[in-house]
Amino acid sequence: MTGDTDDQVAYKTTTATEYTEDDVPLAVDPGEGTPFIVIPRGGVQEVGRSCYQLETKFGTYLVDAGLNQGDGGQFPDFRGIDEGQIDAVFLTHAHIDHVGALPVIESRNLLSPRAPIITTRPTEALASTLLKDSLKIHKEKAEKPGREQLYTDADVRKVLDRFVPRGYIRSDIQDYVPNLPEQETLTFEFGNAGHLLGSAWIAFETMGSRVVFSGDLGGRSNHLPDIEDPPKADSLFLEATYGGTENHDSASETRTEIYSDAITAARNQEPVLIPSFGVGRSQELLYIFKNRLHQLDNDTRSQIQLIYDGMAVGATNTYNQHAHGEFASESIRNLRVSNGEDQPFLPDQADAGYHIDRQDALDNERTPIIIAPSGMLAGGWAPSYLVEFADRYDHANIFLCGFQAEGTPGRQLEDAIDAEAGTIEITLPALRLGEGVPDTDDGTTVEIPTEWITRYSGLSAHGARQTLREFARMVSPEEITLVHGEPDQQRALAANLADKVETVTGIRVGGMMDATPVRPRTDDDSDSALTDRPATKLLDEAEHELTFDETTAATDMDHSDLVDRMDTLEMALRTIDAELGVARHDDTFSEAEIRSIVRDEMRSLLRDEGLID
Fold this sequence. Notes:
InterPro entries: Beta_Casp (IPR022712), MBL (IPR050698), Metallo-B-lactamas (IPR001279), RibonucZ/Hydroxyglut_hydro (IPR036866), RMMBL (IPR011108). GO terms for molecular function: hydrolase activity; RNA endonuclease activity. It comes from Halobiforma nitratireducens JCM 10879. This is Metal-dependent RNase. The chain is α/β, with parallel strands linked by helices. It has three domains: about 1-245 and about 460-520, Ribonuclease Z/Hydroxyacylglutathione hydrolase-like (Metallo-beta-lactamase, Chain A, 4-Layer Sandwich); about 250-455, Rossmann fold, CATH 3.40.50.10890; about 535-610, no CATH class. The chain contains 18 helices and 24 strands. Strands 1-2-23-22-13-12-11-10-9 form a nine-stranded mixed sheet, with helices on one face. It has a seven-stranded mixed sheet with strand order 8-7-6-5-4-3-24. A six-stranded parallel sheet has the order 16-15-17-14-18-21, sandwiched between helices. Strand 11 and strand 12 (about 210-215) form a beta hairpin. Helix 3 (about 120-140) packs antiparallel against helix 8, helix 13 (about 465-475) packs across helix 14 and helix 17 (about 560-585) runs antiparallel to helix 18 (about 590-610). Mean pLDDT is about 85; it is low at about 1-5, about 15-20 and about 525-555.
């Protein structure tokens, strides 16, 4: 299906195809005309199992390898990849939907013997925590009837041994992967994505072409640096988690709201459960409480028991160790230097779940505020706590403050908020505290009053559509492929990008296992992907409104004067281009107003140079 916007930018929607083992269409042949071919193996029209095969003429690489916590296949589709074929894996960040399938790749021997897993230093540390925790859950589930264990402790150890940590820098693949053909000229660059500690967008370049993978984009954190500007590229693979939401609610106001609501509930002796991603969201929540709990009076503070549990414990230790330098916000760096704070994400009165009797904590006189994975209630300790809440309390609180994927218990709770029923019946993958994991997929069914559930949308670690659009504008691609988003979010984002990103000629939505070529731009009128935007492109955009005195330009200036003036023009136009990017971040300007400002600036500039009257 092809749809056109008013600007005649086409976007193509394709659907996932069920291929048999014999007809997986993976005959790819990168070359001079097509330096890259990308094959999405997961994370296409879903938030889960992100995985993209990147083919060059001389190498096979993966970008991410995650698992799915909601509906659909659990792992990426690796059919068609031969044993030992993968030369390297690049990770954008350490969430389980981006790293959880690494042990499966190892167990199937798809990696070459010396293939590295290349990522940032914090991602290496966080992935270690995640993969060990995920292995425990995988082994427990494999004990159920009809289940099979797909990887072992040894596979996880081998994966962790392959990690090659780095910072946000540009590098040559030949420095990381031994035994590649010397003709392989691939370079890659990691830049801060503002989503999670160590998160990155990744740009790849070879044979005059460049492709950028956004990873998950944030820019809303209270402890991470802002998103780093990406380079221009021919093609962009862009996440679309919130492609249908122009702007999120205020993050700072949401932090205050969550904290205030939690303290109010505790004062009313109502327990609070905050299901949370163990990596990233849990640390942001702990940071909120650390900065504010000391403001409470002693009586209120002594009434609260703040508990963080499961994977959040190990991840918090990693955050405290690695949140510094280029990976941390200025406020965190100042806290370390000025106050000598070595645990910025750990409130003084927070108790790790394994240090306490969890059932005791629900029975004593103090009111529990519990931060526990998983954020979607699809595993971890949060489901067990909710089973206990349903059994013990008449009044309690469930704070949903992260994305809830289709098919998860968290999504069921979120959908129930807008329903008219007074209760919601859900099945949780847990038993009561201390009773382990259910032997079957039946789990434990509980009835939850909908008045317990509160949704907070302003704390998302994913950027809304405005952030995604500005990232796309900086990349200035000719082609965009939308990934990591549900179909309705991708369609909304595709229509918006087609209208708002001037360089784009095509947008792809969907296409699981479809080979996507990335070609260098050859059109004489197009921008080079590897250089700054040339002055002629900007001039052409407003050509119908500008008149040039060609006689003056040709006769009144000698060659050196012309060169000087062109240099001045190009520098000024680059400045306008940069200021344009800033203006587009300011909600006070409409797109029409911005274009009017640019036209006025260009007229003034050309008059100063004597090129128009």
